[in-house]
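Notes from the 1:1 (GR / supervisor)

We went over the backlog. Supervisor wanted to see one worked example end to end before approving the batch request, so GR pasted a single chain during the call. The sequence is below; no edits were made to it. Supervisor asked that the structure be written out right there so they could see what the output format looks like.
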Amino acid sequence: MSASVLSSKDHKGFSLDAVSPLEMLGDNLSRHLDPFGVTTSMLNAQVAWLMHPQEMVRAMSSLSGDLMALQAHVMRRAFGIPSSDVIQPNADDARFADQVWENAPTWDIIKEWYLAFTHRLQDMYYETPGLSDRERRRAAFWLRKWLNAVAPTNFFWANPVAQHKYVESHGKSLANGFRNFMRDAQVRNIQMVEDNAFEVGRDLAVTPGKVIFRNRLLEIIHYTPTTGQVHSVPLLIITPWINKFYILDLNPKKSMAKYLVDQGFSVFITSWKNPTPEMSAITFDDYLREGVHEAVEVVRDFCQVPKVHLVGYCIGGTLVSTYMAWANRQFGADKVPVADWTLFTTLTDFSHPGDIEVFIDETSVRALEEAMAKKGYLEGNEMASAFRMLRSNSLVWHYWVHSYLYGEALPPFDVLFWNMDTTRMPYAMHSFYLREMYLHNNLIKRDKLTIAGQAIDLRRITQPLYAVTAEDDHIAPWAQCYRIRRYVNVDAPVRFVLSTSGHILGIVNPPVNPPKRAFWAGEPQPNEHYEDWLKRSQKQPGTWWEDWIRWLQERGGELIDALPVETRKYPALADAPGTYVLEK
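Structure output shown during the call:
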């Protein structure tokens, strides 16, 4: 017989289920010692295999077959007999790209042994019997992170390229690597780009414009028109507050903001304030009312129009989706102040959010809430570290090897500079977002969420939608983003786009000649599976930007004389890129 604790509400209003004291002790230990299940998930998988001996024998038999083939390969290489690799690195695995890993028998054998165990162990963890799919994925994820960490390429004495550079440079490569290590130790981070490689407002975010509105959450930038006439319907972009807005205005060649202005649109963009401890009580409702809704009203008033094009990127798109459902309920479908809307790599259904789910369960969310409660916010670099962990080989160990073992200088890459220029998330808002979206997936449930006084149902949305996703997106998987077609009103026109590349470069995708990327575009049916849509959609070379422009122009209204960048009612408060973007 066990005593129980009565259900109650914690200080933020979240319901706590009745649990036994022993369960509470285990939960507390897990939350404080291993909140993300780094070790416990792998231990659970190991115990599960021990409890299924027959499945274990079959898995070991497969591994022994690999080892026998590998042993034969080792013998052939040892005697100088040509032999093809038993295990090939994945196509996107650049760790063993240098020819020494293939041409030199010793290093080839080390590589092959590592890959053999890595591939087989990962397969085993994905197939662990007796665990849920989620637990298998979580265990396999952390195993993969551990295997990535112990790769031979990460250690000087097991990396022939590092040794060659040491000899070739007479030891300068390791001396430079040590200096790079001390540089990163001071900031407690493996840096991807020097923090002074660029200056916002001088090198990045240089499209001319003015801040025409500011409140406690955001600044609104109106970009200076470059055409004599513009489409009468203005375009408002709601950027993600997880990072700063200038990913859409990196430099003149990559700037979506400049491209849109040059195509004859009045372009407005949000620049979110970097939250301080005093803003810990800011809620998701506040972001909708004082963020999206106020921005829509300001742009409508500035341009003297009834409706706008509304665009949302990533978490900004999730907020825009919520706003569209809210506005259809608040005003009625005919009076929604949005003519049409666009989503960039946006999740609305969080049932399968990709690898990020390993960081999201009740234990990890509570641990994050406890950390946020002490500061009033979540540190931006903590969020950035989680996203880097999703692609640890390319975003962590690549820089470990090149900075410390090779002693190379960091490349001045603008996207990486933006990625390191992190922002914070206020406690109340981010706690709500993690719980209601990721943990409980309530956004897709009819009237389950009440936001700013209105029950939210995505099925009320009838306005035309243009949804863009990215083929290699590890933050918002495209197949999951596709599900927005299932949740908006069946009569809502939807054009869905899949771009090559990932979460950032799939969106920062300007026209170039010859084309570097490609895309698929088409109108999905309400209940059509994403694979069926892809099969009947034709792949097109180039960027989806041009397809989007045609879609916007069809709905952009008549051409009118370009508006001034500021007005008497909305005078310039600052030059673009504004003041909020400069806050550290």
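Supervisor's comment: The chain has three domains: 1-33, 34-154, 209-582.
Batch request approved.
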